[in-house]
Amino acid sequence: MSRRTTTPSNSNLYRFHRPKLPVRDTPHPLKPESELYLRNLSTHRTKRPAPPYPRAHSAAVLVALFVGRAGDIYVLLSQRAKTLRSYAGDTALPGGRIDDDDKTIEDTARREAFEEIGLPQDKSKLPMLCILDPFLAGNEVLVTPVVVLILDNTLKPVLNAPEVDTLFSHPLASFLSTTFPERAAPRGPFPEAEAHAETAAVELRYHAHHDLPWPWSRPSHPTNGAHSTTTTTTRRAVRMHRFLTGREAGGIKPIYGLTAAILIQTATIACGRPPEFPVEARGQPGLNERVAWSLRHPGKRLEEAMRREGFDAKRAALIWDKWEAGKWRAGRFQQRLPFRL
After folding, report:
1. What stretches of the chain show up as alpha helix (H) in DSSP?
2. What is the CATH number that goes with domain 27-326?
3. What is the pLDDT of residue 267?
4. Which long-range contacts (CB under 8 A, 24 or more apart) does 307-315 make?
5. How far out from the chain centre does Cα 13 lie?
6. Is the pTM of this model over 0.85?
7. 301: Cβ–Cβ under 8 A, 6 or more apart, which residues?
8. pLDDT tens across 265-275, in order?
9. How confident is the model at residue 325 (pLDDT cuts 50, 70, 90)?
10. Radius of gyration of the chain (CA)
């Protein structure tokens, strides 16, 4: 991850455009279902951009897709370095927090992918397919996924050793399944992404989940000058998903938590169908409710970020309350320009 910003404004973060991308430009011929997946992603539009959130606690990840030799769609994943202070050794998507020089969420995702795994920032080689609604990470960072398609199969990885240990790939459609995907011949633009996965033990479940109580049980730091309090758990919960990579014998961790949630959403949009498993826990709070709760009961770091930026948490929480109800209007930030295959 790179330096973090304290710039207060994030009004232009969701401005972007999508170029035309003929299917014939993909490195390998597409299967009919893969062509449909790309069309679905390229025509996806968020209903409205995300409401205000502290810029220093805003981040982006790059969901980098590519076409395998058999015409299937894969996503690039990395193993975070085991020496990192946070999420050491986890399986993740390249990404990080917004920098002062980032003009859009897309800029953040592309810059971080370049710094971590060497993906070029050339938009003609990695055109954008869509931007998804954000996700709230456990550390109260609002993470926006940016989905791109790798068109250049000659790319070579340049892994940033202090941040990334390994690069590999996984079939996109498998994030809707409860069973292991079939392993095909080596594929992908990167040598690290082409390694065969070890055969998984029969007794291991490819997909599993567990539910975490919500609100999170931790000290809160109200911004109204009141003393810190301790929140209590309720019977509501947030579901965390886990997918095995088949590489666990080699030290690769399963795909879990935020990364799994992002890839489930990406696969759902691409395939145009729901997963084979329930995505949410019964009564699970929506993103807007969880973000509004965090703004009203911020952890120490989020509270400090809001104070530095002069962020109006009370007003922002009210906007987040109404976001999913359709009362947040996109205005001039609406995604206007079409992207056609």
Report:
1. 32-42, 105-117, 257-271, 287-296, 300-309, 313-322
2. 3.90.79.10
3. 97
4. 307/223, 308/6, 308/56, 309/6, 309/7, 309/8, 309/54, 309/55, 309/56, 310/8, 311/8, 311/52, 311/54, 312/52, 313/223, 314/223, 315/52
5. 16
6. no
7. 57, 139, 140
8. 999 999 999 99
9. very low
10. 20
Task: Look up residue 41 and give its two tokens.
Answer: 């992603």
| H or E segment to which residue 129 belongs | strand 128-131
- Copy the structure tokens of residue 302: 């989020």
3-state secondary structure of 194: helix
Distance of CA 210 to the CA centre of its chain: 20
What CA–CA distance (Å, rounded) separates 70 from 331?
42
Q: What's the pLDDT band for 21 if we cut at 50, 70, 90?
A: low
Average pLDDT taken over every residue of the chain = 82
Which amino acid belongs to residue 233? T
The rounded distance, in Å, linking the Cα atoms of 285 and 181 is 31
- Tokens in use for 165? 């240990």
> How high is the pLDDT of residue 315?
96
Q: Would you list the domain boundaries of the chain?
A: 27-326
Do residues 291 and 136 lie in contact, with contact meaning Cβ atoms separated by under 8 Å? Answer: yes
d(CA 1, CA 113): 10
Which of 64, 136, 131 shows the shortest CA–CA distance to 94? 64
The neighbour count for residue 281, using CB atoms within 10 Å, is 18
The gap between the terminal CA atoms of the chain, to the nearest Å, is 33
Q: Using an 8 Å Cβ cutoff, are 37 and 73 in contact?
A: yes
